[in-house]
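Backbone shape codes
____________________
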Amino acid sequence: MSGQQSEADAMNVGLQAATWLERRYHDAWKESDQAALDSWLSQSLAHRIAYLRLEDAWRYADRLSALRNVSREAPKQASRARAVFRNIAAFAIVVAAIGAGVMAYLNAPHEQIYETAVGGHRHVALSDGSQVELNTDTVLRLSDSASRRIVTLEKGEAYFQVTHDAKRPFVVIADGERITDLGTKFLVRAYPHKVRVAVFDGRVQFDPAAKDGNKRTALLTAGDVLLATNDSQSVQRKSTAVLAKDLGWRQGVITLDNTTLADAAAEFNRYNTKKLVVADSEAAHLKIMGTFRADNVGAFVSVAQDIFGLRVENRNSETVISR
């Protein structure tokens, strides 16, 4: 949609809001009228914003109470009141368009911040019916407006189940990369200078922060797992069973599948304040399999001791594993 079309749509919504406001306070208002207004307001966020902003402006001008008292038995006064109202409503719309802008009213983002602590897990139900689950140590910002929904994943990991709306795209930004919902369920993890996207259902469009010879726009479908670094991009196909392990954190578990001890320790460290340290390279390259509670570091340490015969030493806020 072009900027001119958007502005025209916004002006049209503003005029409709002014008409509703005039009818409400000047005509014989009935229950059926209120039902019709409620229906119009429920059609979109743009309708609600336009109506409430115009009503606030009118009340601020301190005219509403005077117009409410106009005698319905004095046609000339009522006519003049309607004319005054139309002029003020038109003036409010023009001022909004020229100053802050009608588009600013209708498209002004409403930002909310959601976060979890280390070891935390949070479920967020959005007003549009979409669902977002935040994994440990995650911060995301939601910017919601009449024309778009943008989530910025500052750090951590989140699982999205999006209610698709072609008129209000749902976009996730992580490390500058853009992931646009095309009707789907997907997981995004933001590493330092790296982003991982796993698609469980439907499709998403991936747009890299900078397009060059190694990174380009990609359409991902169910089973695709994309990994993008600063200068590279790759996509792999995963089975449903393998992908399901990525969501083990929703039940509080970590699944290790032929994972090096170093990588396993790093995964546990995401969920716990007392950190695991693998002190030597020989131990770091040992591989482990199994499913563990994310907060049960003791079980992992026991495996390191009993299966690999490693030494374990507790040092204040660290547990050090070595040969």
Remarks:
- The longest strand covers residues 177-191.
- Residues 1-5, 70-74 have pLDDT under 50 and may be disordered.
